[in-house]
């Protein structure tokens, strides 16, 4: 994992991005040079047209979910995503290179090569997703511990990354009862440091069930770090591996004294400018969709097209969220708030579709323009549920330290949830966002939101 602007990215993801960008640039530069053009012509040409196309393909591949670290995607689904990417990529390549000067030598050839490079990128995305060659790049991990906590770490790591190279479990000094498979216990080859070096370990995850009474060999862990082996505690491990903060393995001290949770003036100003510019642009682009949606809602069922409902926002202040009505007008005729469920019978036919592709969220852009919400942030909840969840879930109120968002890290990372357990899972993503939010992470979430909409796998 590599940390960029407070957000952890897999090394494979960065390599994929650089490969795609490099392939397109190489193809463009090579075809121009083959036509006898000088280097002085190639460099500005590649910088303008080649980089423009490469940047567009990065956005397309991100929006279609090809850079997401997913292991259970079928070949059919990957091919479908590639075809969707080609539907946008090929016309963009043709359009970008149609701006070449009319007197450019072999203009048609250059355009065709650029389009072929786009096709090659998509073919390689499908191949890379299923070839299994990326497993050679995995980090070799030693889990320090053999109890219940260590077992949880190992299971979580394998679930998140089937190709993870766990070299084994190294039992702590005071851990008498092992809960991990006996065959995965490491037979010590001297000290922890000597064992880690002998096994060519890249990272040690400290997952001791008991951390008192001399069970933490601090000097040996320091020696490991001095030899270039990364040493992380369990909270940091979950943060970087799952992109969430596990509230069951974190304490207030870790949150207070660790990095993150930066709410400075500059970040606030940048986020506000981003919200204003982006929400206005999205409103203009989606206005026809919103008009058609309003007509369909009105035709299907009686009642208002839009509905306003009180939600909890920044610092616990309440505001009226604006959304397209997706349920019957009498959805809560008894006056009692209810969680929305997956197959909620209160949802209309039009409502079911617009909820699936997130169209019902578009009117919230008005809340963004009014400063009550942000484009990216935790999902705003109703006061009734907030009061209940604050009493049941530790650190739940922390999510109100930033503005709620139209989309967010939890929305794109976790499927539909309607229970307290689901709220806990989503809170752990929200905490990660609140701790690490930057403009870079906001842009990534926006791209993943496009992937969610295009695939119809909206998490609500």
TrEMBL record:
InterPro entries hit by this protein: Bact_transf (IPR003362), EPS_sugar_tfrase (IPR017475), Sugar_tfrase_EpsB_2 (IPR017464)
TM ranges: 12-33, 45-67, 79-97, 109-128, 273-297
Pfam families listed in its UniProt record: Bac_transf
Keyword terms: Membrane, Transferase, Transmembrane, Transmembrane helix
Domain Bacterial sugar transferase: 271-454
Chief location category: membrane
Membrane topology, as annotated: Multi-pass membrane protein
Cellular compartment(s): Membrane
Family the entry assigns: Belongs to the bacterial sugar transferase family.
Protein name: TIGR03013 family PEP-CTERM/XrtA system glycosyltransferase
Lineage: Bacteria, Pseudomonadati, Pseudomonadota, Betaproteobacteria, Burkholderiales
């Amino acid at each position: 994992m590599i940390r960029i602007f407070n957000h952890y990215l897999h090394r494979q993801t960065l390599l994929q991005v650089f490969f795609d960008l490099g392939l397109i640039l190489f193809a463009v530069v090579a075809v121009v040079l083959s036509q006898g053009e000088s280097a002085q012509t190639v460099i500005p040409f590649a910088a303008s047209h080649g980089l423009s196309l490469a940047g567009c393909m990065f956005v397309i591949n991100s929006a279609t979910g090809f850079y997401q670290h997913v292991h259970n995607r079928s070949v059919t689904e990957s091919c479908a995503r590639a075809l969707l990417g080609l539907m946008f990529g090929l016309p963009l390549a043709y359009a970008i290179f149609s701006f070449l000067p009319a007197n450019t030598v072999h203009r048609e050839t250059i355009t065709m090569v650029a389009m072929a490079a786009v096709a090659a990128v998509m073919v390689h995305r499908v191949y890379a997703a299923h070839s299994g060659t990326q497993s050679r790049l995995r980090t070799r991990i030693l889990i320090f511990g053999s109890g219940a906590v260590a077992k949880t770490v190992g299971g979580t790591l394998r679930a998140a990354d089937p190709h993870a190279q766990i070299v084994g479990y190294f039992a702590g000094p005071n851990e008498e009862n092992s809960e991990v498979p006996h065959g995965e216990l490491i037979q010590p080859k001297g000290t922890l440091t000597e064992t880690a070096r002998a096994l060519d370990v890249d990272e040690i995850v400290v997952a001791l069930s008991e951390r008192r009474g001399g069970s933490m060999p601090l000097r040996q862990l320091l020696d490991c770090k001095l030899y270039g082996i990364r040493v992380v505690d369990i909270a940091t491990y979950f943060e970087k591996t799952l992109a969430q903060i596990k509230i069951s393995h974190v304490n207030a001290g870790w949150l207070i004294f660790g990095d993150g949770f930066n709410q400075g003036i500059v970040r606030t100003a940048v986020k506000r400018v981003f919200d204003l510019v982006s929400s206005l642009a999205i409103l203009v682009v989606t206005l026809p969709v919103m008009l058609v949606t309003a007509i369909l809602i009105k035709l299907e069922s009686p009642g208002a097209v839009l509905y306003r409902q009180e939600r909890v926002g920044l610092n616990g202040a309440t505001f009226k969220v604006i959304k397209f009505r997706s349920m019957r007008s009498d959805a809560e005729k008894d006056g009692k708030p209810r969680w929305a469920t997956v197959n909620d019978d209160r949802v209309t036919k039009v409502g079911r579709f617009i909820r699936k592709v997130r169209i019902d969220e578009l009117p919230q852009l008005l809340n963004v323009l009014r400063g009550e919400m942000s484009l990216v942030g935790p999902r705003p909840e109703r006061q009734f549920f907030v009061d209940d969840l604050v009493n049941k879930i530790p650190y739940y109120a922390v999510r109100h330290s930033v503005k709620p968002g139209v989309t967010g890290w939890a929305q794109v990372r976790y499927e539909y949830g309607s229970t307290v357990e689901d709220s806990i899972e989503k809170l752990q993503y929200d905490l990660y966002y609140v701790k690490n939010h930057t403009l870079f992470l906001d842009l990534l979430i926006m791209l993943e939101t496009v992937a969610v909409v295009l695939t119809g796998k909206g998490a609500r």
